[in-house]
Design goal:
- This protein has two domains: 166 residues, Gcn5-related N-acetyltransferase (GNAT) (Aminopeptidase, 3-Layer(aba) Sandwich), CATH 3.40.630; 176 residues, Gcn5-related N-acetyltransferase (GNAT) (Aminopeptidase, 3-Layer(aba) Sandwich).
- 32% of the residues lie in helices and 35% in strands.
- The protein has eleven helices and 16 strands.
- Strand 9 and strand 10 form a beta hairpin.
- Helix 6 crosses helix 8.
- The longest helix is centred in the N-terminal third of the chain and has 18 residues.
- The model has no long low-confidence stretch (mean pLDDT 96).
Length: 372
């Protein structure tokens, strides 16, 4: 099949892919001023209107002329909304690339554009495999790729050049004939409001308060796995790890807040889910939350949640034997101690015995101390 020399027009009725035009330069410039575009792509910084005119008038047409890259402008609601492309790798392989104008983020426009692009690439260009890569931490790109059916097969360390550095990238593939739908579960971490607390997903803006909480002497004493000193970078890595747990369906972690006050007062979440067996709930508290029953109520809310949504027959909680405050939170929720694991807890000065607690789903309605 002869290679096309200019982008064809593709549409789903609302979103259109077409060749770039000189008038797209303004939209390309706007997109390239956006901090997220600069963070996650190789767009030059600074980027001026001359760069934008070169991109839409020379770079994209050149890719079609020499067959190296099949790039399309996204048009939505009569205006430029971004660029998507397939970069020819030979042997029926291509790498997918995409970037959105800030005005259409969160609208699903880019996903729809990519579905048009993939359909065209597999059908018209006879592709067998499409490769996806994104800088590690670019969860927006990873989530779009996940919805389209791409795998996420791991990380290539120091692989992708960006302004003089080699960045780590996630990598995945989509093959011809594979369903263009998620192949794994990505957990949602919904907002939960019960018992006078509001649980919401942990976000980047929580990092300063997380650093405060995890630098606290009491927290440092009983959570011996925490870095010491606990830096802002450690807090940011914690936020990142919570998103990774959702993406890998390993658990949900919430910021504990109070209605009308969005400041994070602690963290609570479930993990180690074994279908038909149970899961564990863990938590920590910011010093501002202590002595107010906030953590106790948050544990009750998450216990409700996992019994209702996961259908677990048993929920477990553990605390170092000497951590009387944490044990009080567990016991106040009606969990029963069923044993002690000797030296089972890692604390700041070594190992300590770990008190083991559980509650059965059938027992929970009569054990919980408050009603939701």
């Amino acid at each position: 099949m002869p290679e096309p020399r200019i982008a064809p027009s593709l549409t789903d009725g609302d979103v259109t892919l077409r060749a770039h035009r000189p008038a797209d330069a303004e939209g390309s410039w706007e997109q390239s001023q956006d901090p997220l575009s600069q963070r996650w792509t190789t767009v030059p910084v600074p980027y001026d209107m001359t760069d934008a005119a070169t991109f839409v008038g020379e770079v994209m047409p050149r890719g079609w002329a020499d067959g190296s890259e099949w790039g399309f402008a996204i048009e939505y609601d009569g205006r430029y909304a971004g660029t998507v492309s397939l970069r020819d790798q030979g042997s029926a392989r291509a790498e997918i690339a995409y970037g959105s104008h800030p005005a259409v983020r969160g609208t699903g426009v880019v996903e729809r554009a990519l579905r048009l692009l993939l359909e065209w690439g597999f059908a018209e260009q006879r592709l067998e495999t499409v490769l996806w890569m994104a800088h590690t931490g670019n969860w927006a790109s990873r989530r779009v790729a996940w919805r389209l059916g791409f795998s996420c097969d791991g990380t290539l360390r120091q692989w992708a050049p960006q302004r003089g550095e080699l960045r780590d990238v996630w990598i995945g593939t989509l093959h011809r004939g594979e369903p263009r739908e998620p192949r794994t579960t990505w957990l949602a971490c919904p907002v939960v409001e019960a018992y006078g607390v509001r649980l919401r997903p942990i976000v980047a803006a929580d990092a300063p308060r997380i650093q405060e909480a995890c630098s606290d002497e009491r927290t440092q004493r009983w959570l011996g796995q925490l870095a010491s000193p606990y830096t802002r970078a450690d807090a940011e890595a914690y936020v990142e790890s919570r998103t990774a747990m959702l993406a890998d369906a390993r658990g949900e972690t919430w910021a504990v807040t109070e209605p009308g006050d969005d400041r994070i007062l602690g963290s609570v979440g479930w993990f180690d889910h074994r279908p038909g067996v149970g899961c564990e709930i863990g938590y920590w508290a910011h010093p501002d939350a202590r002595g107010r029953g906030v953590t106790t109520r948050a544990l009750a809310a998450v216990t409700d949640h996992v019994i209702a949504t996961l259908g677990v027959p048993r929920v477990t909680c553990f605390a170092a034997v000497g951590n009387t405050a944490s044990r009080h939170v567990i016991e106040a929720n009606g969990f029963q101690q069923y044993g002690v694991e000797r030296l089972g807890a890692r604390v700041r000065d070594g190992r300590a015995d770990l008190a083991l607690y559980d509650v059965l789903a059938d027992e929970w309605p009569s054990r919980r101390p408050v009603t939701g």
